[in-house]
Amino acid sequence: MAPRKLNVLVYTGTGSTVEAVRHCVYSLRRLLSPNYAVIPISESALLKEPWAPTCALLVFPGGADLGYCRVLNGAGNQTITQFVRRGGAYLGFCAGGYYASRRCEFEVGNRELEVIGNRELAFFPGTCRGGAFKGFAYHSERGAKAAKILVRQDAFPESDALPNVFKCYYNGGGVFADADTVGKDSNAVEVLAEYADELAVESGDCKAAVVYCKVGQGGAIVAGPHPEFDPVLLSQQPDIPGYNVLLDELVADEDARLAFLKACLTKLGLEVSQGTSVAPSLSKLHLTSLHHTEVGEMLYSFDDIITKVDGEEYIKGDNDLFHLEKPDSRWSLASLSQALSNELGVSKTNNGRASPDPTADYNRIPKRIVSHESAWPEPKETPCFNHAIYYSSLQEFRLAEREAEGWGDVLMYGEVVTSTNTLLEKNYSLLSRLPSGFTLAATTQVAGRGRGSNVWVTPPGSLVMSTVINHPAHYAASRPIVFIQYLAAVAIVEAIKSYGPGYSELPVKLKWPNDIYARDPSKPDEISYVKIGGILSNCAYSSGNYQIVLGIGINTNNRRPTTSLDALLPLVGSGKQLAPFHIERLLARILTRLEVLYKNFCRNGFSKELEERYYRHWLHSNQIVALEAEGGVKARILGITRDWGMLKAEEVTADGINGALRPTGKVWALQSDENSFDYWRGLVKRKV
Question: Which segments constitute the BPL/LPL catalytic domain (predicted)?
């Protein structure tokens, strides 16, 4: 059973340039979100981490391919080749195209720039020769041009409304020599587009600018020009004659560029999004409470960290600046315009267009908090979150949970935020004043965080929340904080199953240490699970407490990037049609369940009862795994230790007579922060 391939990895190591990576990440996120997570990958991660099983596309941006060769020749290229040959996809722009050809010939005869040599990947089984046009200089725009590209329509039979010709950014890329005949016998090479203009180098039978190569069970697209470069990210170059004309030409063909890039991604087997959305702007944060007076009480507790400037109130956090607004505050037209411009990261592009700056540092944008001290927000203020449903659900579930008393009373909600965990955990002065159960929820995160270096894709339709738990320090030995992530996993699964009558049959499980999985509704005849949620736990110390920020993300109404809770509803065999999940109601259910489980834990530790509840919902009972850190020895999962929450596994060996597995007596205890569980490969691997 293979994991879903949801990652698009953009190489950022030696040889790449910041500008090329920026354009890659921006354009790919526009076209692939929310179906995939577009993530940078370093040379170290590419060499050492098991990235291939979850990777849908590996991208090498522009830069200098000698740098790629220097660090990846040998083991790195073997890994990349194996990934593609086994069904993966590779996309190389400019230097990434030279790098993936059998031979590179660049600026032959130019002593300062000449690069000649064979390359190991050889996805294109010929020579990439460049620069296709004269004038290239490293770290300069002087050789840039708007290259005219002719699209071969017959190469894209499944793509509609493709342009016959368009212009895109070019700076130093090559031409794929004799592409119409190289690999012809095996039908391994297909020209997707050609240069229209005369070239500065010999191109052979055609002027191939973009080429598709069949590689084993996978495929690669290599490009000399830069169809991933977005003119919105390019700056004026007043010292370069004609550069403003170049920018105007790129802007004029923007729709055609995007259509061509979409077609290339589709040809590589990716599912592109319907639109071409940019990252949304940050929204206001609405501070509310079940009892309105608690909002004022919380603001009073912030008094010593509030700074007043020109009558406005601010909290200067360690990572973010918060501006405290009143619902009825009024700004002058000039200050409102300036604030909106600053907050949205709006900049004027070279052709006068205003567009969100995709590279804006979200940490530097002030976060606006609106405190609602007399009423909950009107639906028009928070169209994606109904506070009345949330608070009424909170009260309803408390009637069934005797110990659920206060968690979730105070809620901060933002439609679009950076990361709910970052806003709390990275602003210590604010965090240190928050009570247990204080919750920050969002509809969309633009910088969502997962465990380790992972990114969690959070499109609209996801439940996104972070809750504060102040765990007394004197519990450190008897009630270790490592168990809180386990409690959260149990709380999520039990909240889903107790959402309402009939929901208890939903096929939702937990994976050690802190992921939520569900039966794949697209494979009803198989026992196949996909990830629909995760937990991120961060911890700090303050005034005798370990302050835990518990981040939770669950695919609730959205079918992408994997599946969602709503998609599971038809799998329930009760015959009753279940209503779709309300994110507000599910949030309330998780908080009430989590509060009760946490209080139980504080009283009794990780008791036998809690342990049994955890095992009731997990995927791993008696699973046979390979322990990577122990040389790949086979082991059977026994459970988790009740003292420090470590995964317990015993070594097994095959019986010589009938091949049955028997224990050797050797047992390992594995820490969750040092190991991760690749459920599909039966592998417990050490984190790098």
Answer: 396-602
